[in-house]
Amino acid sequence: MKGALVLVLCAAVLLPGAAAAETRSFLVFFFTGSTVITPQGETTIGQFVRVCGPSGFDAVVHGHTDTAESSDALAQARGDAVRDRMIALGFPATRISVVSHGAKSLLVPTAPNTPEPQNRRVEQVCH
């Protein structure tokens, strides 16, 4: 795809009060107005499934938009697309929940009606 945004983030964080529990977060980015998963997104989803699937952890899929899109429905559709791909790759559907944030939880703070590629994302979290 022309102008593809490539950024993969995986973070392991120890949760307070739970020394054995670990949270991992992976980001999948989208083009404006799109729910189509890019090749880079496919790679990220595959990594998530390989790392978190066998662990027995649950997954929360957080859908987001930028302030130019500002749509809870689009954020939900992005989350649903990532969830569906996770299931197709073997992650158990019963261990996945999807949450839509729209433009309420920006990775990069912006003014209203501002396109920002890093805010058009789905964050996959396993814990």
Write up what this structure looks like.
This protein is an alpha+beta fold. The chain has a single domain (21-109), classed as OmpA-like domain (60s Ribosomal Protein L30, Chain: A, 2-Layer Sandwich). The chain has 2 helices and 5 strands. Residues 1-20 have low confidence and may be disordered.
Outline:
The chain has helices spanning 39-52, 72-88, and strands at residues 10-14, 22-29, 59-64, 96-102, 121-126. The protein is α+β, with helices and mostly antiparallel strands and 127 residues long.
Helical element count? Answer: 2
Helix and strand composition category: alpha+beta
Q: Can you tell me the number of structural domains? A: 1
CATH superfamily: OmpA-like domain
On the 0 to 100 scale, the average pLDDT is 87
Radius of gyration, whole Å: 14 Å
Strand content: 25-35%
- Helix % is 10-25%
Unreliable stretches, pLDDT < 50, 5 or more residues? Answer: 1-20
Order of helices and strands: EEHEHEE
What distance lies between the first and last C-alpha atoms, to the nearest angstrom?
32 Å
CATH class: Alpha Beta
- Overall 3D shape: elongated
Biggest sheet, in brief?
A: 5 strands, mixed
Q: Assign the CATH architecture.
A: 2-Layer Sandwich
Strand order in the sheet with the most strands = 1-2-5-3-4
Question: Using DSSP, what is the number of strands?
Answer: 5
CATH topology: 60s Ribosomal Protein L30, Chain: A
Secondary-structure blueprint:
Elements: E1 10-14, E2 22-29, H1 39-52, E3 59-64, H2 72-88, E4 96-102, E5 121-126
Parallel strand pairs: 3-4
Antiparallel strand pairs: 1-2, 2-5, 3-5
